[in-house]
Amino acid sequence: MSKWKFHNPVKIHFGSGSINNLSALIGSRKSLLITTPGSTKRGTTSLVRDLLGNSLVAVFDEVEPNPTLSSVLAVSKNIRRLMFDNIIALGGGSALDTAKTFAAVDASGNEGGLADQLNHKFSYPKNFTPKPIIAIPTTAGTGSEVTMWGTIWDMVAKQKHSIEHPLLYPEQAILDPDLTITLPRDETIFSALDAISHAMESIWNKNHNPISDIFAIEAISIIYDYLPQLINNLADSTLRSYIHRASLLAGLAFSNTKTGLAHSISYPLTTHFGLPHGLACSLPLVQILKFNAVESADRIKIMAKALRADTTVESMASELTKLFERLGLHLNLSYYGIDNSCVELISDLAYTSERTDNNISSINRNDIETIVRSLFDEEKYNI
Q: Which structural domain range is residue 256 located in?
């Protein structure tokens, strides 16, 4: 048998109303809240204020979608001199990633060199001790509440940066499905598609392991069955709970494998063409499934039952395509205003060893271009 390992240190609290235990989890510590304008508008920021009282020393609620270098530095400028013991990250992936990046900057003491450090991989001091993070996701898809990674975007240079460190795993994660009830339809769909991408990429991944497989297969199964139901019943708390659980399981899966080719292709779709992240990383899934089945059929087949398909590639690809159809989505990039003259640009930017090297099957730049070109195939993908 092959050797493998699995590790995740995050203490998880899941269930309706679980946010009400926040004060008990914080204890006597002083907290900083990093969140979004949306959380404040929906009243979730006020809920946290009420739960923590005087132990909440400050709130930064200006987190932007797809957080940038400048937005993280804005956090640092506004709150770095405050005295606090831990960080509460409330919101979607953007809030969680902002909190992790700020925690890294705060602990490394190198605010001015953030851009350079991100360009040349973050350099952590020997005594690096970031403030503990309590992650409270209000979307169902990011998985960031159980990973040590954070994503920061440079929309000027059209680049995506990542930070990572074992001490950037959140200390605790509170997953309260009730906090996702007011999430709009499109955000609900795109977040869940991010989760199914995490799950599938952990399966067709060189770093796969039996524990990640269990989490990933269950996540795919839940999303396949319940996401189409949820978009027609957005206030259904049971369906929200299912999708929140699937997002968590997918996060646990890729927390030990990293993401792969689909995410690599997604980055230029977001930085250059503005596609939401969850949508961008899900659009190539059907073609990547087909590509990997050529060399790694046994890995792909383990998803068949979760997709309600037989073990043939054609059946699995068909069922995955049907999922997009049931969600009312197009798989053709032309539908999103992207011209097929951009194939080479997308392919060049998508070929990043940091992600493509994780793919279970060998892949080169030409293979990526073939996959990207297929996303403009009107006959197959304009559903």
A: 186-381
From the list 375, 274, 268, the residue with the least C-alpha distance to 329 is 375
Strands 149-154 and 159-164: antiparallel
Give yes or no for residue 111 having a pLDDT over 80. no
For residue 264, which amino acid is it? S
DSSP letters, 242-295, are HHHHHHHHHHHHHTTT---HHHHHHHHHHHTT---HHHHHHTTHHHHHHHHHHH
**Taking every pair of C-alpha atoms in the chain, what is the biggest distance, in angstroms?**
61
Token reading at 143? 């998985």
**Residue 349 half-sphere exposure toward CB, CA atoms < 13 A:** 18
In the structure, what pLDDT confidence band is assigned to residue 91 with cuts at 50, 70 and 90? very high
Nearest to 166 by CA among 139, 134, 197, 128: 128
Domain boundary residue among 135, 154, 179? 179
d(CA 1, CA 214): 17
pLDDT the model gives residue 43: 95
Q: Phi/psi of residue 36, each to 5°?
A: -115, 160
Distance CA 297, CA 294 (A): 6
The SS3 call for residue 128 is coil
Alpha carbon distance 67, 35 (integer Å): 12
Whichever domain contains 273, its CATH number is 1.20.1090.10
Count of C-beta atoms within a 10 Å radius of residue 82: 11
Q: What is the DSSP letter of 130?
A: P
200 and 124 in a common domain: no
